UniProtKB/TrEMBL annotation:
Molecular function via GO: fructose-bisphosphate aldolase activity; zinc ion binding
Pfam families the UniProt entry points to: F_bP_aldolase
Positions that bind Zn(2+) 2: D105, E135
Gene giving rise to this polypeptide: fba
Protein name in UniProt: Fructose-bisphosphate aldolase
Entry's Gene Ontology BP terms: fructose 1,6-bisphosphate metabolic process; glycolytic process
Source organism: Clostridium bornimense
Binding-site residues, dihydroxyacetone phosphate: G178, G208, G209, T210, N229, V230, N231, T232
Amino acid sequence: MLVSAKEMLTKAKAGKYAVGQFNINNLEWTKAILLTAQENNSPVILGVSEGAGKYMGGYDAIVGMVNGLIKGLNITVPVALHLDHGSYEGALKTIEAGFSSVMFDGSHYSIEENIEKTKELVKITSEKGISLEAEVGSIGGEEDGVVGAGEIADPQECKAIADLGVTMLAAGIGNIHGQYPENWAGLSFEALDNIQKLTGDMPLVLHGGTGIPEDMIKKAISLGVAKINVNTECQLSFAAATREYIEAGKDLQGKGFDPRKLLAPGFEAIKATVKEKMELFGSVNKA
Ligand code: 13P
């Protein structure tokens, strides 16, 4: 059964670890992440961008697939199915389809409009027991067509949004979606600390988890980050393992072209990446 992300994140914040959000693209991705969470006795959040939602044939198809896999694979660890960087309309649609958690990314609106729309969604999600992530200060880079400038969030604006009663808050602290450029300035821990001081118990969310050095991840967790999003890193490990299989000519040997064989190395690579992140984030055995 899908659960809201509230309880797992409240526990993570209090226990000084973070729960990973891993974005899904298809059945292999979803199965790999769910099995790894179960094997490591870790809570997990499956992220779905609006673009990935379209790609997979709509939100109903995703809810059906995820619920079916949870049942078929005997997954007993807490799993939240979460809309990533959603629009207001996307949030309503995913709630309707049966998602257990949504992000409303109002960071590109004025703070007044962001507050207004987030407030409406707080009302809708809290009535249904669904967790809600809000965003202040856009995340840099591009993810599925959502482009952000990479701002450092204003702590007072973070407090204003946190006070609305959202479940978790994504605040830009110099993080970027995708791979980090050579000249990246790093995360702003000063900003994170100021945000944490003003938002108290609120679980903070670190987007752009791919490529952030381990020491920065650990420091961010010590300063209140309780959810870390990883997307590109699973894509890269899947692609590298698939490339290796094809370049070794294995698809041409015997029945190596069978999709269950062809996609197996990439599937195992996603599992290894997710396990590594769960260990780094400290969520192993926290289910
Ligand atoms: P990366 O693709 O950089 O890991 O970021 C993922 C993310 O933040 C999803 O919202």
